Structures are given as C-alpha cells and as structure tokens.
Amino acid sequence: MSSRELVVLGTSSAVPTKSRNHNGYLLRWDGFGVLFDPGEGTQRQMVRAGVSAHDVNAICLTHFHGDHCLGVPGVVQRIARDRVAHPVSAVFPRSGTEYWRRLRHATLFNDTQVIAERPVAGDVQEVAADGAPFTLTARRLCHSVESYGYRIEEPGGITMLPDRLAAYGIAGPLVGRLQREGRVTAPGGRTVTLEECGVPRPGQKVAFVMDTRLCDAIKPLADGADLLVIESTFLDADAGPAEEYGHLTARQAGRIAADAGVRRLVLTHFSERYGAEDEPRFAEEAAAAYAGDIVTARDLVRVPVPSRHRPGSAARP
C-alpha cells in the first residue's frame, strides 16, 4: 500500500522558538524520502518524529541561510553512523557549493560514500535523484540570496476498471500483460487496448516553496499541486518587511494556491515575532483568497498527500 505524507520536523524561520524548531520537512513517497531544508536540530526532530536516516533518499536545500541548512552536519553524520547503504542525492544551489562542503565536512567523523552531489543552476533544472519514482524539478526563486523551489511530479498512468476487464474476459496474467504492452488478444480473439479497460490517472504533484518574494517561478512550481508547502513568514500587516526581506505573507500564499489550483496548502516558516495567539490569523488570511484545505504546520505533525480523487475547484472568486 502506498504511503505519501509530509512529516513536519520544524516550522520556524530565522530564529527557533520554544514550540517551533528550525525548518525541516521529510516527504515520504512510497518508501522514498526527500528531506527538505534540514535546519538546526533536525536530527533530534527526526528521532522525535519516529523517522530514521534510512528513510532519507535525497536532501534538498533551497538556499544557504542557516535556518534551512544548519542541520546538514548532523543528518550527514547520522547517515554515516547508521550505515545507510542506499544512494542519497544531495541537491543544492551550485552557487553555494562552498557552504555545502563546509557543512558536509563540518567535523571529524567516519565518512560515508553514499551521498552524491547534485548541484542546480540556472532558472530551471530537472534533477537526477537516484532511484526517485518521480521527476524533481528546481526553479530559481527571488530571495536575498540565490534560492530554489522544488516540484515533485510522478508520471500519469491508467486505472484499470474491473467491469471492463470482465466484459472482455481479461483476467489473471492477461491483466499484467495488458498493462505492460498496452494491448492483448482476449479469449474471444479480439484485440483489446489498455485504453478500453481503464481511465487516465493523473500523477500526483507536490511543490515546496521556501524563502522568496512574489515572482514568476512560483506558478509553474505550484501549478495543479496536490500538496503545496509554502513559506508564510509574515501576516499581511507586515507585507512591507516581507517584500524587503524577500518573503511571502499568508495572504499571498493563499492567493498563490488559489491561482495554481492547489488541493492542500501547508503554511510554514513563521517569524518568531508572532506568538501562539497569532497562529489562527495565518489560516484566516490565506482563506481570504483560497477556499481549499489549509494546514497551519506545527512541529511533528504529519500531513497526507491528498488521494488522486479530485473534488471541485478550491479557488474563490
């Protein structure tokens, strides 16, 4: 059975708080794990969340501000200590290669050879993540330093319809052959195609958008996403500082989700200037633009990727 969920390890921005760790997000996708932006304390948060170094197949950094990468040394050393044997792709902005290597080799330890560097550059790049059952695309955002957003997208497929298979007399090994080859000869002698026995199944999509002000790259990252994980550092009253420092507000995040036809919106990366009493306002401001499912992320929660069944539009006029 497939399991696709976001394990939230940290939700603060530049400064951690008593209730919010620095960033950290593990996307679990049918046994393949992508760890986004491991900030300081991520290794411990993984333990608290019940996930291990063996669950990590790729590490994706959006940029090299500390709240998005200071957990790299601990995660890398845990991968080595726990003798993770599978390849682990390390994806990061090429312009920050010097910082990656400082983090990667921050202290003495018995090193591991399983980590393969996959630096990204330019406005858009498809990334070769070892063993990934989906495509991983990076797009350059607009922050005070070079920053990238990521989009995960699996290929579309066909959902088999049992009644149609039965009508054509296709059963047992013939079903697998039909799926592999696209056509089979039915017991009655008729050639039956895959399209006659199934309906198109769209591939699922997840977008991860961290530190950025509004820019053109966000829409293709978020377009049609089943799950959008996006920074909402500020409330709308602080839209000025958000623009100045290269961040988004919760209202802007909601508008992005509505315009892109997102199915589930996860707000995160909250400024430490806001207290617990302000938390409901993030969802309220996002909901002013977006009528879909909104999750105000908290440390250690798990957010399922919505199933492939698609309800009506979530955008408000």
TrEMBL record:
Superkingdom assignment: Bacteria
CDD domains in UniProt: RNaseZ_ZiPD-like_MBL-fold
Keywords associated with the record: Endonuclease, Hydrolase, Metal-binding, Nuclease, tRNA processing, Zinc
Enzyme nomenclature, EC number: 3.1.26.11
Residue ranges of every copy of the Metallo-beta-lactamase domain listed in the record: 21-189
Annotated cofactor note: Binds 2 Zn(2+) ions.
Reaction(s) catalysed by this chain's protein: Endonucleolytic cleavage of RNA, removing extra 3' nucleotides from tRNA precursor, generating 3' termini of tRNAs. A 3'-hydroxy group is left at the tRNA terminus and a 5'-phosphoryl group is left at the trailer molecule
SUPFAM superfamilies per the UniProt record, alphabetical: Metallo-hydrolase/oxidoreductase (SSF56281)
Example of a GO MF term: zinc ion binding
Binding residues annotated for Zn(2+) 1, in chain numbering: 63, 65, 143, 211
Function, as annotated: Zinc phosphodiesterase, which displays some tRNA 3'-processing endonuclease activity. Probably involved in tRNA maturation, by removing a 3'-trailer from precursor tRNA.
PANTHER family tied to this protein: ZINC PHOSPHODIESTERASE ELAC PROTEIN 1
Quaternary structure, from the entry: Homodimer.
Protein name, entry field: Ribonuclease Z
Organism for this UniProt entry: Actinoallomurus iriomotensis
